[in-house]
Amino acid sequence: MTGSQTSFAARLAEAGATRPGLCVGIDPHPGLLSAWGLRDDAAGLDRFARTVVEALADRVAVLKPQSAFFERHGSRGVAVLETVIAEARSAGALVLVDAKRGDIGSTVAAYADAYLDPASPLAGDAVTASPYLGFGSLEPMFELAARHGKGVFVLALTSNPEGAAVQRAVAADGRTVAGTILDELAARNAGATPFGSLGAVVGATAAGGIGHDLAKVNGPLLAPGLGAQGGRPEDLTDLFGSALPLVLPAYSREILQTGPSVDALRASADTVWRSCASVLSRSA
């Protein structure tokens, strides 16, 4: 991080102190567009995404546009994503671009430029990343994030059941693959205050527990899988334990399916946040 620039972690902590510490996905998949009475084209995409921004960007801590649902509409869809990122940030929300990028060398450096360099129209406040070409392959992302006060959320234990075959596999040193990733994040976040800007994605539906002291990660823990995917706020206590203060609960369909009414979207976000806050407050 350069100069007096505020870290992503500090901005996230501030956002969580002044508005609901909730992450809401912007996932305009065809079924939701249809349910909202919109066409599955760039115009429908634009109406959907900007309605979510209008409803929630000045109310919740984080908005998380899923890049794939914009990319499927080609250059016009990517243009909508650029607009959504800019408008959401202008309204005060932090933007986590859910791109799950991961590669090696100059390619991952290019992904870092796209999603973390302030000069890029696709740059949010943070990006999701895949470590499955080796945790160290993400170094260009980590370096650029630190330079510009951005965040990176690394996949560790995801909410899809298929992920366990890889993520819970045991490496030669006896640690699970997920445990290795969490240990790497902990090492990089060590000593950071209020916590580090490198986070982990740990699904709220991760069955069988974590088997890892997540508090040691000392970074934000994005918890997708809540709501429509079956995760419940009350599950968070057993899953995250002493790391509960670091949890960023993430909802998508549970809230988005109440649109296109702006008031209904706001009411739904308020409802799920009350459920989460009653759990998270017990850790205070």
Automatic annotation (TrEMBL):
<dbReference type="GO" id="GO:0004590">
    <property type="term" value="F:orotidine-5'-phosphate decarboxylase activity"/>
</dbReference>
<keyword id="KW-0456">Lyase</keyword>
<keyword id="KW-0210">Decarboxylase</keyword>
<protein>
    <recommendedName>
        <fullName>Orotidine 5'-phosphate decarboxylase</fullName>
        <ecNumber>4.1.1.23</ecNumber>
    </recommendedName>
</protein>
<comment type="pathway">
    <text>Pyrimidine metabolism; UMP biosynthesis via de novo pathway; UMP from orotate: step 2/2.</text>
</comment>
<dbReference type="Pfam" id="PF00215">
    <property type="entry name" value="OMPdecase"/>
</dbReference>
<dbReference type="GO" id="GO:0044205">
    <property type="term" value="P:'de novo' UMP biosynthetic process"/>
</dbReference>
<keyword id="KW-0665">Pyrimidine biosynthesis</keyword>
<dbReference type="InterPro" id="IPR011060">
    <property type="entry name" value="RibuloseP-bd_barrel"/>
</dbReference>
<dbReference type="InterPro" id="IPR001754">
    <property type="entry name" value="OMPdeCOase_dom"/>
</dbReference>
<feature type="domain" description="Orotidine 5'-phosphate decarboxylase">
    <location>
        <begin position="21"/>
        <end position="268"/>
    </location>
</feature>
<dbReference type="InterPro" id="IPR013785">
    <property type="entry name" value="Aldolase_TIM"/>
</dbReference>
<feature type="active site" description="Proton donor">
    <location>
        <position position="100"/>
    </location>
</feature>
<dbReference type="GO" id="GO:0006207">
    <property type="term" value="P:'de novo' pyrimidine nucleobase biosynthetic process"/>
</dbReference>
<dbReference type="InterPro" id="IPR011995">
    <property type="entry name" value="OMPdecase_type-2"/>
</dbReference>
<dbReference type="InterPro" id="IPR018089">
    <property type="entry name" value="OMPdecase_AS"/>
</dbReference>
<comment type="similarity">
    <text>Belongs to the OMP decarboxylase family. Type 2 subfamily.</text>
</comment>
